[in-house]
Amino acid sequence: MDKKTIIKTLEKIALYMELQGENPFKVSAFRKAAQVLELDARSLAEMDNILSLKGIGAATGSVIEDLINVGESSLLVELQSTVPSGLLPMLKIPGLGGKKIAKLYKELQIDSIEALKEACETNKVQALAGFAAKTEVKLLAEIENLQSKPERTAVWQLEPIVAMIESKLAAIPAIDKFSVAGSYRRVKEASKDIDFIIATATPKEVREELLKVLPVLKIIAAGDTKVSITLGGEQEVDVDFRLVEARQYASALNHFTGSKDHNIKMRQIAKEQGKKISEYGVELEDGTVVHFESEKDFYAYFNLPFIPPTVREDGSELTKLDQLSKLITLDDIKGDFHMHTTWSDGAHSIEEMIEASRTKGYSHIVITDHSNYLKVANGLSKERLLKQMETIKEINAKYTDIEVFSGTEMDILPDGSLDFEDEILKQLDFVIASIHSSFSQPQEKIMERLQTAMKNPYVHMIAHPTGRIIEQRDGYNPDVPTLIEWAKEYGKILELNASPYRLDLKTEHLKLVVEAGVPIAINTDAHHIDQLKYMEIGVRYAQKAWLHKENVVNTWTLEQFKQFIQK
DNA sequence: GCCGTTTTCGGCCCGACTGTTTTCAGTCG
């Protein structure tokens, strides 16, 4: 029996209980028990006192004992035999929760989305107390919608939408200030919706403006403080706007940035002090409400350092406050080691990339165009690469404030060989090895290819190690723990590719890399000067894995970097 | 269902919005 299975079982039990219309506190007790296990860093074998953990009592404890002793939970088995599995997907229908689904099942024997659709169409649902004609229409629309709209939208799809909304909000005079909040602000890879906080003295006016200037497909809700809409366009997405007074802004921003778990932890802390946190401020026992100028002030009020949005996740961040000052920040970044120019598939010349990098304040960068194999990207032949090296040398001589190194993003070919011979590689300052082809090979073959690169003495780094595109393709499925072991053995850098399409390696893998003590480079893989800005999302994503400055190659000084690439 | 150094019973984070009601339940974040 492993911990994951126990956690999953407890969560599944909670789900089934919800579908029975159970007491929500009872349901959340099972979720909490699952979370207690999740947050405990120890493996199942290392935990000798599971049943004495806070949050695990008689009922949840017996589920765990069942799983360890028998291999299955009698409670879950019982629930599964009484609750039809067809009710589970019904929870995905907006407007339907456990109570209503339980009622629909109990009164009308509705046990699937299909059955619900039919019952609505034949007007059987409106006969139930608490349901009416309008509900049937809404349910039918939501069921219809369920197939067409994806559950989560990737960060790279949201990015241009957020930018569009920001430009619209900036042009509304009645808005004092605004910020994106929610999981997008926490740099989650994908989000269910986008949240915005708006400070205004005239919320009604702003509400009307919003509905006018945005490409609204559907209004989900439009109250005095909340406007929820579905935006049309290439990518349909739900957006929530919260309209608050200027003095409530910091509290609202904090509240709607979440995460939910982080907020709950903060509220518990406040409660112990006899205070109450809401999205409008902190209420004291005598009823007065304290407001804050900024989120920093809000945390300071509870004697806490500023906690960046990116690490506000499962609540465990409040036990790692001593690490906050070591977290990697954009200010620590001294260089970018993976970018393309017009020599291969980039949009800008070497000089333009250098100039754009100088405005970032970098002390060193590496130009890494594609190699010969990648014809679609105009990959460089060895002759062109040698010529580029000369060109970079000449250009570099013109600059005193930035050092430009010659590199390559060399393909690891499908047959496991490398695209350039050692004779060429040893002349380069920095060598990246990447897989761009034959993703569907069996894992052993993929690992064989990666190992060839790892063993090559002239390779410095493996780029986008899994090849994933967020929410779109999984990549080539390497055995990442083994890859990390090799990186340690052969002294290689692993990349956190900062392109929002990739964010590769992902958080859970980055944590392993840190544990192994393998250096990580955060690189934009920029094909355009505008994409150099991806360093920011990369750094903020790295914070989610609690990457410290010392784990990240980009924080090294020019001298330290030179030493590494020369060995 | 779980918890407890004011508590073994009563509260569990808190508030907005909708659709159903005619003062509130359910859902959502």
Automatic annotation (TrEMBL):
First and last residue of the signal peptide: none
Entry GO terms, CC: cytosol
SUPFAM superfamilies hit by this protein: DNA polymerase beta, N-terminal domain-like (SSF47802), Nucleotidyltransferase (SSF81301), PHP domain-like (SSF89550)
Residue stretches making up the DNA-directed DNA polymerase X domain: 1-313
Keyword Membrane: no
Pfam families listed in its UniProt record: DNA_pol_B_thumb (PF14791), HHH_5 (PF14520), HHH_8 (PF14716), PHP (PF02811)
GO biological process: DNA repair
Molecular function GO labels: DNA binding; DNA-directed DNA polymerase activity; phosphoric ester hydrolase activity; zinc ion binding
Keywords: Nucleotidyltransferase, Transferase
Organism superkingdom: Bacteria
Domain Polymerase/histidinol phosphatase N-terminal: 335-414
Name of the featured protein: DNA polymerase (Family 10)
Source species of the chain: Psychrobacillus insolitus
